[in-house]
Amino acid sequence: MNPPKRRLILASSSPYRRELLARLQLDFECDSPDIDESALTDESAEQLVQRLALEKSRAVATRQPNSLIIGSDQAAVLADGTVLGKPGTADKAVQQLMAASGNRVIFLTGLCLLNSETGKSQLCCEQYAVQFRALTEDMARRYVEKEQPLNCAGSFKSEGLGITLFEKFIGDDPNSLIGLPLIRLTRMLEEEGILLP
Description:
Helix content: 25-40%
Number of helices: 6
CATH architecture: Alpha-Beta Complex
Radius of gyration: 17 Å
CATH topology: Maf protein
Largest sheet: 7 strands, mixed
Number of domains: 1
Low-confidence stretches: none
Distance between the termini: 28 Å
Shape: elongated
Strand content: 15-25%
CATH class: Alpha Beta
Number of strands: 7
Structural class: alpha/beta
């Protein structure tokens, strides 16, 4: 008798991460982790995204036996260390875009692959940077009105009209910017015996 096949679970309700993972042409399910994503006192942005990626994976592992669980979390960080989260409102999104105007913003994406059967986890933080062009407040408002990036860290969607806000990208995996570093994930999956392509 063959052992049951391991399932692949994305510990996220993000449609952006779901679309990215679908590019790998693997069968997977989504399961929202529903955890507290607040930062801890004196926790760096890198520590935060890695901790949350792991916690998301562990939360889903409690109800998904014999599965490989992918957890991910992201933060955008200005050069002065200010962390840009999801804005939630249009005014806050405009404020974030104006703070990023003419500056380089670093996106830190925590990625975890947890085997719920063995308890083994692989964990990393991928960095990807964006150089913003100089923006006027009117440009920022027009962008926010058109694309409504209120649930996106840093207040933009690079896969959409957000591309008009940038001068250049700096990094190894542009998928990291959207929230799921597929190059690193491919290597993690290989460690668990899932070979791609």
